[in-house]
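Quick entry, no commentary yet.
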Amino acid sequence: MAEAEGPVNRPTGWFEQPVWTAVGLLVVVCGGPVVAVAGVAGFVPDEDRVGVVVTGLVWTLLGVVVLVLAVGGTARDLRVWRELDTAGVRAMGVVTSAERVPCGEDERCTGIRMLVKAPGRPPFTTSHLVPGEEVVEVGSAVPVDVHPTRALVRLAADRSR
């Protein structure tokens, strides 16, 4: 049986946490160029200059890779969420297993596995984390949004629809 993938909750945007975003961008993206410029501009002793410049260039390359992966991942998550918003079909998933799992420093979640039967698709299984203290019973029905043609599924944000 196929395993579906998809977001559990709306992905965090780049600027929804502006302080951490700014600190991360400064450290990851700007650290390498600052070190390389310090080496080229002569702020380090001559015998260490080559090492400092090479280190700065390596950090710059790593910073660019991290930035590209982060922006690409965020764009993909937002695209997946929009696809489920526009093309998603509401279905009911039957919980086949549920267990309490840690999902943060002091937080606990319920890890659920469920069987989803969506119209026009063969049944498939999926697993999600339900945040908070909500108790999810095995055998209970959970509303989910399913993409009609792709293996994307998410827990329904609005359980009344």
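second:
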Amino acid sequence: PPPPALLPPPPPPPPAVLPSFFLSCRHTTRRAVCHLLFGRTEVIDNTLNPDFVRKYILDYFFEEKQNLRFDVYDIDSKSPDLAKHDFLGQVYCTLGEIVGSPDCATMKFCANKLDKKDFFGKSDPFMVFYRSNEDGTFTICHKTEVVKNTLNPLWQPFSIPVRALCNGDYDRHDFIGEFTTSYKELCRGQNQHNVYEVVNVKKKIKKKRYINSGTVSMLSFSVESEHTFLDYIKGGTQIHFTVAIDFTASNGNPSQSTSLHYMNPYQMNAYAMALKAVGEIIQDYDSDKMFPALGFGAKLPPDGRVSHEFPLNGNIENPYCNGMEGILEAYHQSLKTVQLYGPTNFAPIVNHVARYAAAVQDGSQYFVLLIITDGVISDMAQTKEAIVNAAKLPMSIIIVGVGQAEFDAMVELDGDDIRISSRGKLAERDIVQFVPFRDYMDRTGNHVLSMARLAKDVLAEIPDQLILYMKSRGIKPCSPPPAYSPDHDHPQTTPI
């Protein structure tokens, strides 16, 4: 090696931009408890609902209890000293809790002869389940529905992760009584051991002849393994990705820099960024990496016919593109051949993918449609009907809004708050996720970070949507193929 004097000077340290949250791991030894700082996230400016992107890789050991602590700070300067920033709070958990048991317990309870609490009626009873903590405190893990005006309520069955049994609503109510049990006792199911006396301690002290305030009986208890998204992927379920791009005139002339379709030689436009951000993640779950790419709202050569489901590669018989690069290439080429027009119709695209999804409902395939658009939807009623019909199929829809338009109508399609309906018929499940891309643009112009945030948010609901479809149809994941093992009855050949 060269002598020290000839070595280049070290690079200047990076600017000390402090994140608003950091992760540490606590290691317990025989002598002391030490904390190892794993890292700090990026800063999310001016929000009470931060969505962090930075990831951490931790070694997981089944046989060890690995304690984690998350500290949250409000950052007001670039000082790396945490003491100079506002500490918001912290949470503890174990790595095992994060990757832990997917088992889910389903149970059903009723009660008999509860105390009367209402002056003009009986009682409106509900039951709250608390999990006992190691420090002697209790944490709410489930609350049943209220059954009105009865002393003999029958509550609906409910499911709860087993790990939640073995934070809460503390609103004031009239206290009837309490009892304690254990997971081991609950596992016995309906029998004499799972009939509990509901006791009000204060009432018991005041009344010498007090026995109880009624009884609660378990009617059923079952535990089943909850299948995960990864279980289906490992079992062979393929994710089929289709992209649909808005070619309406409201995007502006692609040859002008003000257009959302403008091809800047130095950076991708919003359409390309949204496509690449989502597609590069989904493509890993499709074995052949061949994806249909469609456009809508354009006039097509040679006759100027308006189409709302045309292939970007110009091949009606085979609209598939090879990977993300193939889709981007077809998108770029189509801008040179079609005329941006309108209106902004979604229903033809949704129905197009739904036809393919309807043909394969055995759990072997799941379809994800990405629609990238700049404007207000023109066929709202038809699109709602198409989505309600598609909700019964192995299909999810992602809508990314680009540009500065108002997207109020798009929010209506996203059924997070109010389930979408058409002609009085509710969608069987929520399959639409809408986000405006402008909400994810990094203020420093870091497009990689913008794309990572977008992908993280729009893809977050896909696993649960897939699982809900499979569960509603009673489809269990296939067993993954066995690992290859050589046939010991035959000699192996070694390639030269």
